[in-house]
Amino acid sequence: MLDCLIIGAGPSGMTAAIYLSRANMKCKILEKMGAGGKMTATSVIENYPGVERVDGFELAVKMQTQVEELGIEIVNSEVEKIIKGNGFFEVVAEGETIQAKTLIVATGTTERKLNIPSEEKFINKGISFCAICDGGFYRGKDVAVIGGGNSALEEALYLARLCTKVYLVHRRDEFRGESVLVNKVKHTPNIELVLNSQVEEFMGTNKLEQIKLNTGRIINVSGCFEYVGQYANSSLVKEFGVLNDEGYILVDQNQSTKIFGLYAAGDVCEKKFRQITTATSDGTIAALSIATALKS
To answer: The whole model's pTM is what?
Structure first.
């Protein structure tokens, strides 16, 4: 029986594995895709401490190598079901049943997209889902932000400090975000509100160059940041009653849920900021909390 089974090989899951190994805990990671999570879809990372500039895929590989050199197995397998036993968990993954004393759910989130035909072509070639991660690449350029909630408003304000012009495109004439943010946006000179409008098409050759709206307007931009929502990959633990109204996993300061032995880390948790550094922090805390609990 494993001391801990980690579901998800993003930065939080791999960090947890490293700390569990150092605490002599027997663990394994299950990952249905490739190791690295959203890092692998990030062209350049410049905000990871100690690493001035690194390709997201390269950083993911470095983390994976470190994990595997510690003898921790990363198994490409999709979890189908989690069963709570008496003092342990049974995890069914592609026909195999794995028993573990504790679980760390580190399954991340999935970004909601606009789902228009030209969108996929320009993801990571002008289309981004994280202004803090990628905003620096558009310093002194014109960009668009799509959305009307707090995230869209906050990121428009952030980008306005870097970019020459920010077009804030929203399908309605009023914003869903907090009034204080709306007021700040309206009083920021280089943010142009483009209301009652939706993106109809992304255009460009090898990278994004223009967005076409349903009103017929065409806007020249170097980048476009989509904030039309995201959803937590938390369906595996829905039956345990550990989710908030938006589907994110509720945890305490130890990254523990109300179910004994069930922990969560990274973007799948209820939290304000979702960055690689916050994910690695969660993984560290979860691992050390488990090590402490099992040794007591």
So the answer is: 0.79
Residue 203 domain boundaries: 113-226
- Annotation marks residue 245 as catalytic: no
Per-residue pLDDT of the chain (296 residues; tens, 9 = 90+): 999 999 999 999 999 999 999 999 999 999 999 999 988 877 678 889 999 889 888 999 999 999 999 999 999 999 999 999 999 999 999 989 999 999 999 999 988 899 999 999 999 999 998 888 889 999 999 999 999 998 899 899 999 999 999 999 999 999 988 899 999 999 999 999 999 999 999 999 999 999 999 999 999 999 999 999 889 999 999 999 999 999 999 999 999 999 999 999 999 999 988 899 999 999 999 999 999 999 97
Q: Does residue 56 sit in helix, strand or coil? A: helix
Residues in CB range of 12: below 8 A, 6 or more apart:
104, 106, 265, 266, 267, 279, 280, 282, 283, 286
Which residue of the set 3, 27, 134, 282 is catalytic?
A: 134
Residue whose C-alpha is closest to residue 237's, from 271, 272, 264: 264
Distance of CA 40 to the CA centre of its chain: 11
The catalytically annotated residue of 4, 133, 163, 269 is 133
Is 267 annotated in the active site?
A: no
Residues 33 and 12 grouped into a single domain: yes
Examine the domain organization and report whether 178 and 122 are in the same domain.
yes
Do 103 and 238 share a domain, yes or no?
A: yes
Give yes or no: residues 150 and 193 share one domain. Answer: yes
Count of domains forming the chain:
2
Domain boundary among 175, 199, 226: 226
In a shared domain, residues 94 and 174 = no
DSSP string, 211-244: EEETTS-EEE-SEEEE-S-EEE--GGGGGGT-B-
In the annotation, is 27 catalytic? no
What CATH number is attached to the domain comprising 267?
3.50.50.60
CA distance 160 to 163: 5
Residues 105 and 244 reside in one and the same domain: yes
